[in-house]
Write a structure and sequence with these properties.
The structure is a homodimer of 236-residue chains. With 236 residues, the first copy, chain A, is an alpha+beta fold. Chain A has five helices and eleven strands. Chain A is globular. Chains A and B meet through strand 2, strand 3, strand 5, strand 6 and helix 3 of A and strand 2, strand 3, strand 5, strand 6 and helix 3 of B.
């Protein structure tokens, strides 16, 4: 792996179970790109706030959007420290002791300073990305974005200045002397999957899904679909 | 519904799409109880931090635990404001305009002040709850908790002082005039489900899963299983 690494600082260093930690861009990006939902944390008048939000990534920049009038967007527009977290639960780990119960997971924690996207070209490009990163090419088929919609939406960008990934992906970690304790132990996999599409009741007769929706086949894992659509989006 | 309500304050009031907001205990609890993963946000030296964490609820108190030596536990033990968020993604909502794309979701945001559980009886009860709330009765079958494990674990309690729920659970919300735009629109359901159990390779011959694991049948939705095990745990 020749991937670059994020700097390791007191803020992002993985102190507990450091063998699960990673700082290279590729590992962090893979966790981010497999998600659409992130938790964005910030401080307002000394109080912590956390907002679940759709995010997307271009290179080393995370983007998200919201109503221009919302508390989150108005505050982040002033340029503040934020902490953006993406988490995937991959399995429940059942051990012979309570202490060794665990979960398999992938999480990425990113730190940076937020700013409002003011440049009209970047803003329009990112409003389009908010659709096309998830449904490649879809924006061309949609009703065009109106000036009022642009005005009503605030787009936030946060260059990632520090980040770390933490991954547990293995079997049960029992103490050796617990091996003979007579209780079932093992891993129960957890996946997030897509169901059968429910077409809008007002759909024009004969309309079918376009190529933008091809990856979203029923039964597929959402994290795999999102990884795939990010790659398609990046190829352009 | 005769459920009590949380106070509505500038901090927890749902300002955007207020018709999706709710403050009653029953609605907030249902969202919390359907999850095991929460995102815990706090402020340390002016910087926001967010830690993905296993949580559980007893009445109006949220509990979580971690290594006594971890930054999060040591800081929260000093009694600080925290913001605990639980989010479920239930569907992708594809509209005829980018602006009206959305998601179906259930989220709960809880505010409170954290404290370390110091009382030995409450601490032991909550270490047991950390297993039994998810796998009812399992603690009795496990190797007993040791004094060293109790010492190595910090349990945090946070009485919920303010909270709100936000739910979107409906079809596409297109502008009326977009109804004839020729692009597929609809909802793609998203669920988080359990896979087939992977027994530990070191399992004693003939050992099968106990009643504690009965709810965790392959294919079931994790949120439904967790709602069910919380109810079983509360019945005692």
């Amino acid at each position: 792996m020749t991937s670059q690494s994020y700097p390791i600082t007191p803020r992002n260093r993985v102190k507990r179970a450091p063998e699960r930690g990673s700082y290279d861009h590729a590992t962090v990006h893979a966790i981010l790109d497999a998600a659409m939902l992130a938790h964005v944390s910030y401080v307002l008048e000394g109080q912590p706030f956390c907002t679940p939000t759709l995010i997307w990534r271009e290179g080393e920049v995370l983007y998200w959007h919201g109503s221009s009038a919302s508390r989150m967007i108005r505050h982040l527009a002033t340029g503040v420290q934020a902490c953006v977290v993406v988490s995937h639960v991959d399995g429940l780990v059942l051990a012979r002791s309570g202490f060794n119960h665990s979960a398999n997971y992938r999480s990425a924690i990113c730190f940076g300073v937020t700013e409002l996207v003011n440049d009209p070209e970047e803003k329009m490009a990112q409003l389009i990305a908010a659709t096309d990163r998830f449904y490649p090419g879809r924006s061309r088929a949609l009703r065009a974005i109106t000036p009022q919609e642009v005005k009503a939406t605030g787009v936030i960008r946060m260059p990632i200045t520090e980040a770390s990934a933490k991954i547990r992906a293995k079997g049960v970690g029992d103490d050796e002397e617990d091996g003979n304790h007579p209780v079932w132990a093992g891993v129960i996999p957890v996946t997030t999957v897509l169901g059968a599409p429910q077409p809008s009741s007002a759909l024009l007769p004969g309309l079918v899904m376009g190529a933008d929706m091809a990856p979203y086949a029923p039964g597929r894992r959402l994290d795999e679909v999102l990884t795939e659509t990010q790659a398609v989006y990046e190829r352009g």
